[in-house]
Amino acid sequence: MKNKKKLNIIVATLLVLVLVYLGLSWPTNYYIEAPGDANSVSQFVSSNGKKASKNLFMVTVSERQASLGDYLWSYTNPFETRISQKDLLGNQNTSQYMQLQEWYMETSQNNAIYYAAKVAGKTPKKKFFGVYVMGLTTNSKFRNKLNIGDTIIAVDGQHFKSTKALMDYIQKQKIGQKVSITVQRDDKSINYSGKTVPLATDKAKAAIGIQLVERSKVITNPKIKINAGSIGGPSAGLMFSLASYQLFTGHDLTHGVKVAGTGTIDNEGNVGMIGGVDKKVVAADKAGAKVFFAPSQQLPGYKKNETNYAVAVKTAKKIHSKMKIIPVATFNDALTYLKKIQK
């Protein structure tokens, strides 16, 4: 009788453990963002067989879908953030989201090479193919017409040489005016018509209600090749531009100092704000970086203590890091600092 009672207790205990395990393993609709890796850009940037400096580091944020147990455990780590699937993916599915990150990375690489070539005294050329459709606003008259991944190659039959020229043309139209959009989809050209709507950031200007990123190709001599593999997003732009500049000029920018950083880059060399800078500071410190470039850009709606630079400084203090956090608004800010450490 005692043996049977003991057996029942063991079975019940095992059953409870199994149920607890299954419960904690149950998938949630949340993702966990955490510190990723600090990768030497020399893995990704090269020119005619020459590699970029091993001491320039780009930093990533890792993303993983959370089980219930993982979700709860993440509260024990101050640098892990829970984000809902809707907030992360928006209206895209996972494959569309990954595709968008690839396009961001493509644009980041093009801008990095283009501006680095200009500063290095080269004569870069950019072939503009159009703009990728990344999403549509709820009020867009092109919803259910344009697809994510379409490339807009013309408006009203007119072709353009830059994203700015295309946007300027649309914004000069009257709100409610009918425009014709030509898109490339699966190697086919398709025309759609629809009325313009107010631009979200300036109601007095016209828009077609899309989120976009440029589709282009940069040509330089010597040729710079960037292959970031499965890493997506635009935040490595600054570090790619520094690596490209080094390959164009042959200058050693770091002189043995491990330099990490983050920030987008545009055609004019402006460094833009990114997400997850606290996690990137943690990853850079873990990799032994001595310097960390953080964007100082203050976007509308953000307070001064919410800039990437301010958050990076706060994070470095929190983890007792000895890294120097350097604010950068432009590529030239970063280059000027690197020239100082060479002396």
Main attributes?
endopeptidase La, six-stranded mixed beta sheet, serine protease, 343 residues, alpha+beta, protease, five-stranded antiparallel beta sheet, Ribosomal Protein S5, domain 2, 2 domains
- Give Rg in angstroms: 24 Å
The name of the CATH architecture of the largest domain is: 2-Layer Sandwich
pLDDT < 50 stretches: none
- Look at the structure and give the mean pLDDT: 89
Strand fraction equals: 25-35%
CATH class of the largest domain: Alpha Beta
CATH fold-level assignment of the largest domain: Ribosomal Protein S5, domain 2
SSE string? HEEEEHEHHEEHEEEEEEHEEEHEHEH
> How many domains, as an integer?
2
Please give the largest β-sheet: 6 strands, mixed
| Strand order in space, largest sheet | 5-1-4-14-17-18
* Number of distinct beta strands: 18
Spatial separation of the terminal alpha carbons:
85 Å
Q: What is the general shape?
A: globular
Number of helices: 9
Helix/sheet category: alpha+beta
Helix content: 25-40%
Structure description:
The protein has 343 residues and is of the alpha+beta class. It has 2 domains: 35-64 and 93-124 and 220-341, Ribosomal Protein S5, domain 2; 125-216, Roll (Pdz3 Domain). The chain is 34% helix and 31% strand. It contains 9 helices and 18 strands. It has helices at 2-25, 68-73, 85-89, 94-119, 163-171, 237-249, 277-286, 308-318, 331-341; strands at 27-40, 45-47, 50-51, 56-67, 81-84, 125-136, 151-155, 178-185, 188-195, 197-199, 202-207, 210-219, 225-226, 259-261, 264-265, 271-272, 291-295, 324-328. The strands form 5 sheets. Strands 5-1-4-14-17-18 form a 6-stranded mixed sheet, sandwiched between helices. Strand 8 and strand 9 (188-195) form a beta hairpin. The N and C termini lie far apart (85 Å). The mean pLDDT is 89. It comes from Lactobacillus jensenii. Belongs to the peptidase S16 family. It is an enzyme of class 3 (hydrolase). InterPro entries: Lon_proteolytic, Lon_Prtase, PDZ, PDZ_sf, Pept_his_AS, Ribosomal_Su5_D2-typ_SF, Ribsml_uS5_D2-typ_fold_subgr. Residues 227-341 form the Lon proteolytic domain.
